[in-house]
Amino acid sequence: xxxxxxxxxxxxxxxxxxxxxxxxxxxxxxxxxxxxxxxxxxxxxxxxxxxxxxxxxxxxxxxxxxxxxxxxxxxxxxxxxxxxxxxxxxxxxxxxxxxxxxxxxxxxxxxxxxxxxxxxxxxxxxxxxxxxxxxxxxxxxxxxxxxxxxxxxxxxxxxxxxxxxxxxxxxxxxxxxxxxxxxxxxxxxxxxxxxxxxxxxxxxxxxxxxxxxxxxxxxxxxxxxxxxxxxxxxxxxxxxxxxxxxxxxxxxxxxxxxxxxxxxxxxxxxxxxxxxxxxxxxxxxxxxxxxxxxxxxxxxxxxxxxxxxxxxxxxxxxxxxxxxxxxxxxxxxxxxxxxxxxxxxxxxxxxxxxxxxxxxxxxxxxxxxx
Length: 370
Description:
This protein is α/β, with parallel strands linked by helices. The chain folds into two domains: 1-20 and 86-169, no CATH class; 184-367, Type I PLP-dependent aspartate aminotransferase-like (Major domain) (Aspartate Aminotransferase, domain 2, 3-Layer(aba) Sandwich), CATH 3.40.640. The protein is built from 13 helices and ten strands. The chain has helices spanning 8-22, 43-66, 86-94, 155-167, 175-179, 182-195, 206-211, 214-217, 232-241, 253-266, 295-304, 326-331, 360-367; strands at 107-108, 114-121, 130-139, 199-203, 223-227, 244-248, 278-283, 308-312, 340-344, 354-358. Its EC number is 2.3.1.50. Residues 137-367 form the Aminotransferase class I/classII large domain. It catalyses: L-serine + hexadecanoyl-CoA + H(+) = 3-oxosphinganine + CO2 + CoA. Belongs to the class-II pyridoxal-phosphate-dependent aminotransferase family.
């Protein structure tokens, strides 16, 4: 989150220039039907894939029976849980090793738009690798660096160096005491302005932004309706909150509405008392699926049933919408229709940390929640 102190307009131009470089956004009418863009797998492709996998599985199992690998065994482990379960150990040792030459390849330099890999060979089926002394430059398609800002030269790197020289690396104090400096204030104002809400509060770790802040919004007697594909940080935060958690099928608005209706009609288990609050949690772009949330439909349901909405824009902020302001911008929805906006600086913005954005009441609650 290092940023040279300067005008907000300069930073805004800097962020939006990244959008022009990438050309990965397109306008989307809020009233248009949301459609998934995944290509359906044909039956023959699925059959061939599974057949190849099971042939390999059978082959390596036969190999395991007749070929001794001289593997080390765990010693003095009585009373301890095994480090690996049976299938995991079998898969890593006998299957994954066979494709080890194309996995976990060392690279050199900065993994920007392109990445340079160190070439290597194996002569013993993946047990050992030797470097050849050559390198291969490849297009990087496996990175969160959506806008190409994560480089060791350019505006990001230069401003980071200047801010370190001016403010040092750490403050050695919690923010509530002596740890807040002008960069925090500027970043929070800029973030709120960028996403179009009243205020924001920033944190040092993206995962913790979900995991440690959700318990501040929720407690026993609250109900959470969570998409089944939500990130592990959300799941951890919900478990810590003490709230009741119900999962709806991925991007299934019919199932979500049924859950809302049941929650309002039946209330809390045993007592049937009304829920203190009902919170819907979804991601803008789902990190493990790549699918886009059906935000217009969720906002409509949230308003219809008087629920709250928490939107995780970790993978969509900076990479979606005409101005790069996430799925809210992509659909042309008013940011104030989302009660709590969460995002990270670790993806498109090539930094670290996360933010919670919304009304001043929401951010004030977080600053007084510990």
